[in-house]
Design brief:
By secondary structure, the protein is α+β, with helices and mostly antiparallel strands. It is about 40% helix and about 20% strand. Helix 3 (about 35-70) packs antiparallel against helix 4.
Length: about 325
């Protein structure tokens, strides 16, 4: 009993820890660290709305404290009933007009930026078009103008508008790259459009922002922004077929017999599973595991233990067959 009574002493410590830990996190997945024009505009609106709310809170608390101190019962005061006032038309007008003004201050730039983003999306003649399809629980990226498709890693040039078409193949998901802009839903049978732009070369983390199933929290992807010259080289490499070495050809045949019905390994191929063209050059397996043989073996042998609810079946391959497939997958490099 005494032990529980002493726990209240730790409340200030926990409060301090919470305050300090709110400043921790990955800067590449923070909406408070904008790295593109869309994210900067949206951060301005967030700051504006927060500032208005903070102003209202401060004013209300100041008035509350003033009344609390000014009209408190003092020592020696008699027990009398104060003068009863029904109301004040002046005060009623003031506290009606002020909120309307504050709402207008917030509404005008919000509407302005909303139409600005819409017009910027429509003005996409020079933009790079990317079609995004959300699956359970991975992301597919198509570049229709370039004739290539990939998965999990979205590669874009810097300082160039990227016009997105967003859809889903199964359930509702939500495409979100916090450093570059707000989220946009991906809905089956429907296409949403918007644009993003990165101002500098870097790698940004993206997530699914809509609860979509058992592995929703594992539905991550990366956005790699490159200089235009590097991006052009990446496109050229994606279109160049990988040369399969002799010691990986056995694994290639096993892959064709068991995996090719879902996974394409060429520039434009699409299937029920991610396109594995250039797979060996990716940093992650299944979007979450470090890219090494151990992770690959775990994923191929038992996909459900890595991402529960995903649609990849356990193929029942023997250990030596899995090792051969891994050797083949490791040959799929961008050169």
């Amino acid at each position: 009993m005494i032990r529980w009574q002493n726990l209240w002493r730790f409340i200030p410590l926990f409060g301090l820890m919470m305050l300090l830990l709110t400043g921790c996190g990955d800067q590449t997945i923070s909406a408070l660290k904008p790295r593109g024009p869309v994210a900067r505009d949206q951060l301005f609106l967030m700051k504006l709305s927060f500032g208005i709310m903070l102003l209202v809170v401060v004013v209300v608390f100041v008035l509350y404290l003033y009344v609390l101190v000014r009209f408190r019962k003092k020592k020696g005061d008699k027990d009398i009933i104060p003068k009863q006032v029904e109301g004040s038309h002046t005060l009623e007008i003031i506290w009606t007009v002020i909120p309307i003004i504050l709402l207008l201050i917030l509404a005008v730039p919000t509407v302005q930026y909303t139409f600005k983003l819409l017009e910027d999306h429509r003005d996409n003649k020079d933009a790079l078009h990317v079609k995004v399809t959300a699956h359970a629980f991975w992301w597919q990226f198509e570049y229709p103008e370039l004739g290539i498709a990939t998965a999990q890693d979205l590669v874009i040039p810097t300082n160039k508008k990227i016009a997105f078409e967003l859809t889903a193949s199964d359930v509702k998901h939500s495409f979100w790259v916090p450093s570059l802009g707000g989220k946009m839903d991906t809905n089956p049978g429907n296409t949403n459009v918007y644009y993003l732009q990165a101002d500098e070369v870097d790698v940004f983390k993206g997530k699914c922002a809509e609860l979509c199933g058992a592995s929703h929290s594992l539905m991550d992807f990366k956005v790699k922004s490159m200089d235009q010259a590097d991006f052009d080289q990446w496109v050229a490499k994606m279109k160049t077929p990988a040369a399969v070495p002799a010691d990986a050809q056995k694994g290639e045949q096993i892959f064709k017999d068991n995996c090719l019905s879902c996974h394409a390994v060429n520039a434009q191929g699409l299937g029920a599973g991610p396109n594995l063209n250039g797979f060996a050059s990716r940093e992650l397996v299944a979007g979450i595991l470090p890219h090494n043989d151990e992770s690959l073996k775990q994923w191929i042998a038992d996909p459900q233990s890595v991402k529960p609810g995903n649609k990849m079946p356990a193929l029942g391959l023997k250990d030596d067959q899995i090792n051969d497939v891994i050797k083949y997958l490791n040959s799929l490099k961008l050169k």
